[in-house]
From TrEMBL, chain A:
This is ATP synthase subunit a. Belongs to the ATPase A chain family. The chain crosses the membrane at residues 29-48, 84-108, 114-134, 143-166, 197-217, 223-241. Keywords: ATP synthesis, Cell membrane, CF(0), Hydrogen ion transport, Ion transport, Membrane, Transmembrane, Transmembrane helix, Transport. The keyword Kinase does not apply.
From TrEMBL, chain B:
The chain crosses the membrane at residues 69-88. The gene is atpF. It comes from the Bacteria. F(1)F(0) ATP synthase produces ATP from ADP in the presence of a proton or sodium gradient. F-type ATPases consist of two structural domains, F(1) containing the extramembraneous catalytic core and F(0) containing the membrane proton channel, linked together by a central stalk and a peripheral stalk. During catalysis, ATP synthesis in the catalytic domain of F(1) is coupled via a rotary mechanism of the central stalk subunits to proton translocation. This is ATP synthase subunit b. PANTHER family: ATP SYNTHASE SUBUNIT B, ATP SYNTHASE SUBUNIT B', CHLOROPLASTIC. CDD domains: ATP-synt_Fo_b (cd06503).
Length: 250, 217
């Protein structure tokens, strides 16, 4: 393995596939997407297999994640937003599992690829826009016109609202991507210090203790970040969906 | 030093990416140059020319975008289907069953509580009626016993009266008889006295009249 901290983000082809001149190869990224789906689905499916009235430990983890997202969505987008529950739940579980899988040594982090997070963010915003126009027609555009704003300020406020709306998919995707990327690079750099310092002999080994502690601490932090970023992604999704369900305020 | 080592190590991979095995014997620079040529048909073919020489940062490597998007669509689509068709109904069902069961149990509990309250109320009522009934029975028994005792006493008193009366008559009889006997004894005593004193016998009639006259005084 290379000491290059960005080596872990390389996409390697496993099964080369090319359709119409475009490279659709099954890569390590694809493999870990499949793994994410398999792990998340397998966990949720098999822990709830008993359908226990009194849940086992693992079953209550699945139930907690369900109720966690359900209450998040209900608070964020109201009871009308509950039709998006499968979507938000899938997003949260997918991002969370991908983040956590990425924490395993030698595992590829699906969410450290900007194209993946951007695609997910576009999916969210696309859902908001399509559902908003489908449900409210041009009334959806009231989203950009907050009520109670003086007429003189309206052009300024509307342009700000439009810009903030357009920046949402970018901020949503970059937040997740950058967090995962930066965390993994930092971890790799500190872990690299440990190996390169300990190669210098006794003094180096003593000096390697500090980066080793940093690596351990950062690993804990990164697990937290993995959960937190999945949570943030889901919460923001709920907020954006609220705009589609209730444009023009509440 | 580590940077050069890294780029040297990453080279075999990029050669593999170029899908041109013949290039493996060429220098790294040639391999990089070969990459855009190999994949010139991709939608981002123009960008390749810029990236190829600079060793692009992996997450921004646009050659991987199409494949990642496709596989993300496949896997996330599948995941969404699995979640919405299997997992969410399943967990939702479990939670709903539990919710129903709890509500049912609470209903049952409140029903049982109402039953218990009714039972307590009827018990209290029974107790109160039993108490009044008991009181009635007790007082009736008391009355009864008192009446019986009174009757008994009256009867005993009556029989005692009878006995007293009988005894009194008998005493009177005995007294009269004794008094009658007193006359006879006096006559005999008188006869004996007369004989001793006078030396002759007095007739019975004389003695009787004498005694009677003395007794009359």
């Amino acid at each position: 393995m290379s000491n290059d901290p960005t080596h872990q983000f390389l996409v390697n082809k496993i099964v080369p596939i090319e359709i119409g001149g475009i490279d659709f190869s099954f890569t390590n990224a694809s493999l870990f997407m499949v793994a994410t789906v398999a792990v998340a689905t397998g966990f949720l499916y098999f822990t709830t297999g008993q359908r226990g009235l009194v849940p086992s430990r693992m079953q209550s983890v699945s139930e907690m994640s369900y109720e966690f997202i359900a209450s998040m969505l209900r608070e964020g987008a109201g009871s009308h937003g509950m039709k998006f529950f499968p979507f938000v739940f899938s997003l949260f579980m997918f991002v969370l599992t991908a983040n956590l899988l990425g924490m395993m040594p030698y595992f590829f982090t699906v969410t450290s690829q900007i194209i993946v997070t951007f695609a997910l963010a576009l999916l969210v915003i696309g859902t908001v826009v399509v559902y908003g126009f489908y449900k409210h027609g041009f009334g959806f555009l009231k989203l950009f016109v907050p009520s109670g704003v003086p007429g003189a300020l309206l052009p300024l406020v509307v342009s700000i609202e439009v810009i903030s709306f357009l920046s949402r998919p970018i901020s949503l995707s970059i937040r997740l991507f950058a967090n995962m990327l930066a965390g993994h690079i930092t971890l790799k750099v500190f872990a690299g210090f440990v190996t390169s310092l300990s190669a210098l002999g006794a003094v180096g080994v003593a000096g390697a203790i500090l980066p080793l502690f940093m690596t351990v601490a950062l690993t804990g932090l990164e697990f937290l970040v993995s959960f937190l970023q999945a949570y943030v992604f889901a919460v923001l999704t709920c907020m954006y969906l609220n705009d589609a369900v209730h444009p023009g305020g509440h | 030093m580590s940077v050069t080592l890294a780029s040297a190590e990453s080279t075999p991979f990029e050669i593999a990416q170029a899908e041109t095995p013949a290039d493996t014997h060429e220098t790294p620079a040639d391999a990089h140059a070969a990459q855009p040529a190999g994949e010139v048909h991709t939608e981002t073919g123009v960008a390749h020319g810029e990236e190829a020489g600079s060793g692009v940062f992996p997450p921004f490597d646009q050659t991987t975008f199409a494949s990642q998007l496709l596989w993300l669509a496949i896997t996330f689509g599948l995941f969404y289907l699995l979640m919405s068709k299997v997992v969410i109904p399943r967990i939702g069902g479990i939670l709903e069953t539990r919710h129903d069961r709890i509500a049912q149990d609470l209903d049952e509990a409140s029903r049982l509580k109402a039953e218990a309250d009714a039972a307590i109320a009827s018990y209290e009522q029974d107790l109160a009626s039993a108490r009044t009934k008991g009181n009635a029975i007790a007082s009736a028994a008391r009355e009864d016993a008192k009446a019986k005792a009174d009757a008994e006493r009256a009867k005993i008193e009556a029989s005692l009266q009878d006995k007293i009366a009988g005894a009194e008559t008998r005493i009177a009889e005995i007294k009269a008889k004794a008094l009658a006997d007193v006359g006879t004894i006096a006559e005999e005593t008188t006869a004996a006295l007369v004989e001793q004193l006078v030396g002759s016998k007095a007739t019975k009639a004389e003695i009787a009249s004498a005694v009677k006259s003395v007794a009359g005084k």
